[in-house]
Amino acid sequence: MKYYPVCFGMKFNVFRIIVIPFMFFLFINQLKSQDSTLFITDSIPIKSIYFNSSKLENTFILNNTANFEVGLFEGKLIFEQKYNGSSRKIPKTIHVKINDTESKDSSYTIIENSDLEDYELKFLFPVWNSLNFIINHNLNYYSFSGEIGINKMEKLNGSAGFRYLFNNESFIEFSGGLEKNNVATLSYSGKLFNIEGYLTDIYIEDYLIQTKLKGNYSDLTKNRKNMNIDLKYLMNKKFDSEDDIDFEMYYKLSYIDYLPSIKTGNSDFNEIETRTENIIGSLLNINFALSNSLFGLLNLTIEKSWYEKFYKTYYVEYNYTGISKSLNKFNLSFLAEEKYKTSDFVQIAGLYFQLQSKVSEVANTRNINDYEYNILKKEEAMFDEDVNTTKLYFQTIWMPNNNEILKLDYSVSLTQNNTPSIFEYSDRDEYNSFVNLTFQHKFNDNLRFSLGSYIQLKHLVYIKSQSSANNNWERDISFKPGINWNTNYFKMNPGFELLVKYISYDFESDTIPYPRSSSNRIIKYQDSITIKFWKSLSLQINVNLIYYEIGVFYWNDFSETPTTSNFEKYIKAMLLTSYMNNSVNIGLGVKYYNTINKSLLKFSENDNSLENKYISIGPAVDLSFNFPSGSYITLQGCYEFQNVNYTIYKLIPIFHLNTKIVL
C-alpha cells in the first residue's frame, strides 16, 4: 500500500490560486493610469475573482475563477483562470497476520487529491485602427493522486497572430504557434493553428444576424493530430411585441488522436486510436398573434451527429484494432402551441413530438475472420434504438375575481422505445397521464391560502416476452394545502402534503415472490418561520418533517402489509442580526436532524432489533459581508455531533464559503 502526504497537491494549488490573482491585482493597480486605446474605454473593465470552498465529512472542495481585463502598453491584457480541486481522506483497515494463529487490525488513511486548472492569457496590441497583433497562452492541467498512484495530464500552448476588427464587437482572428502535451509518462509537441471569429449587429432587411466561430488544429509528434471546430449562426427578427422569429444553426467537428494503453503479455504500449465527431443541428422558433386574444407558437429542432473510432495500426491478437466503429444519431422534435387569453381567462393547448434514433455500424477494415467480426457487430448492435414520444397537453387558468385563481393542467403522452437487435429485450412502451388542480385564495395582502392536488398514472409495457413480467402500473396521488402569512412582525409558510404511490405488476402471481406490488405512503410538513423582534434582530426557523411507509400491496382487494417505515426530522433555528444597512449579516443557531428507520414486521411487542436511529445536532453559523463595489463573502457552517443507535459516531465540522472580489 502507498501512503501519500496529506493534501500536498491541494496546498500547492491553493498557494497558486491565491498568489497568482493577487499578483495580477497589484499589477492592475499600477496600470490604471494608462491612456485608453481604441478598445479600452474609461468604463470599468471586467476584474473579478470568485472563490468558494466546502468541507463535507472527509472531503474538502475548493473552486476558484478569476477574470481580469486591463490596458497595457496601449493594448489590452486579458487573464482568465479556473480551478477545481478536492481532497478526500479514506480510512482503511487491513488484517495483519502475526503468526499462524494470531492477527491484528492495522488502520491507515489514504489521501485522494484531484486538481483541474485552466489558465488563459491574451494580449492584444493595436497595429492600426482595425488590426490588432495578438498573443495567446493557454495552460490546462489535471492531476489525480490516490491509492492507485498518480495520474497527470498537462497541455501548454502559445500562439501569435492578428485580429481584424469590424466594429466594437465583431472580429476575425488567426494565430499560430506551438503546443506541448504531457500525459502520464508520455510527452509530445507540435505546431498549433487557431481561428476565432465573432460577428454581430449585422442587419439584412431588419434581420439581426450573429455568427460565432472557434477552431484549432495541432500536428503533434508520435503521428498525432487534433482538430476542433465550433460554428454557430443565429438570426432574429422581431416584428412587434407578439410576433418574432428566431433561427439557429450550429456545426461541431472534432478529430482527436488518443493514446490508449494496450497490454501484450507482461508489457504495455500505447497505440493511436482516432475518434471523430460531427454534429450539425438547427432550431426554428416562431411566435405569432392571430388576434388580440389568440396567439401561437411553433418550435422545430433537428440534430444529426456521426461518431467514428478506429486504430491506425492493426494487431492480429487484438481483433478490435482491425475494425472501425461508427454511431449515427438523429433527433427531431416539434412543438405547436396555441394560447387564448383574456383579462380573466387563459387557455393553452399544445402538441409535442420527438423522434430519436441511434444506429451503430462496424466495418471490417483489416479482413479479420468472419466469426470474430460478427461477434463485434452483435455487441455494437445491442446499443441501437428508435425512440418516439408524442405528448398532448392543456392548461386552463381562470381568475373569477382579484382574490382567487383556479388552474388546471392535463397532459397525456406515449413513449415507444424499440431496439432492432434480437438479443436486446428492453423494447417498451410507456403511457403517462397527469392531472393537476390548484386553487389559490387571497384573504388580504398578508394572508394567502393554496390547495393543490394531482394524479399521475404511468403504464410500462415491455414488448418482448422475456421482460414482460416487469409490466407495471404506477399510480401517484397527492393532496397539498399551504398557507402564506406575512405581517410586520412575523412570516410563516406552512405546507402539508399527503402522497400515495402504488406500483402494481400486470402479471403478478401469488406463487412466486417477485415481482411484488408495493405501496408508499408519505406525509410531509414544511415551514419557514421568521419572527421579527426589532429592525435588526430576528429569529428564523426552518422545519422539514417527512414520514413514509413502504409495504406490500395487493391490488385485487386494495389492501397492503406495511413492512418498513422512516421518519425524518430537520430543524434549523437561527438568530439573525444585521449592521450597516444589511452590509454585514450574522446568524447564530443550531441544526438538528433525526431519522428513524425500522421494520414494521415484529415478532413480539418488545422486538426493536430492526430499528436504526441516526441523530445529528450541532451549533451553526451564517455570515455574509457585502461591499459597495459588488464584492461579497458568505460563510455557512456547523459542527455536527453524530449519534448512531445511541452511540457517538463522529464529530464533523462542515462549512461552505463563497467569495466574490470585484477589483
Ordered list of secondary-structure elements with their pairings:
Layout: H1 8-31, E1 47-56, E2 59-72, E3 75-97, E4 103-128, E5 131-146, E6 149-165, E7 171-183, E8 186-204, E9 207-220, E10 224-238, E11 244-258, E12 261-264, E13 267-270, E14 273-289, E15 294-311, E16 323-341, E17 345-364, H2 370-381, E18 385-401, E19 404-418, E20 428-442, E21 447-462, E22 472-486, E23 490-492, E24 495-505, E25 518-534, E26 537-554, E27 559-579, E28 584-599, E29 611-626, E30 632-644, E31 647-662
Antiparallel strand pairs: 1-2, 1-31, 2-3, 3-4, 4-5, 5-6, 6-7, 7-8, 8-9, 9-10, 10-11, 11-14, 12-13, 14-15, 15-16, 16-17, 17-18, 18-19, 19-20, 20-21, 21-22, 22-23, 22-24, 23-25, 24-25, 25-26, 26-27, 27-28, 28-29, 29-30, 30-31
Walk me through what this model shows.
This protein is mainly β and 663 residues long. The protein is built from two helices and 31 strands. The strands form two sheets. The chain has a 29-stranded antiparallel beta sheet that branches. A two-stranded antiparallel sheet has the order 12-13. The longest helix is centred in the N-terminal third of the chain and has 24 residues, at 8-31. Residues 1-45 have low confidence and may be disordered.
* Largest sheet properties: 29 strands, antiparallel
Measure the end-to-end span.
47 Å
Tally of helical segments: 2
- Approximately what portion of the residues adopt beta-strand conformation? over 45%
Low-confidence stretches: 1-45
Helix % is under 10%
Radius of gyration: 32 Å
Described by the principal axes of the CA atoms, the overall outline is globular
The average pLDDT is 85
Oligomer: single chain
Number of strands: 31
Class inferred from helices and paired strands:
mainly beta
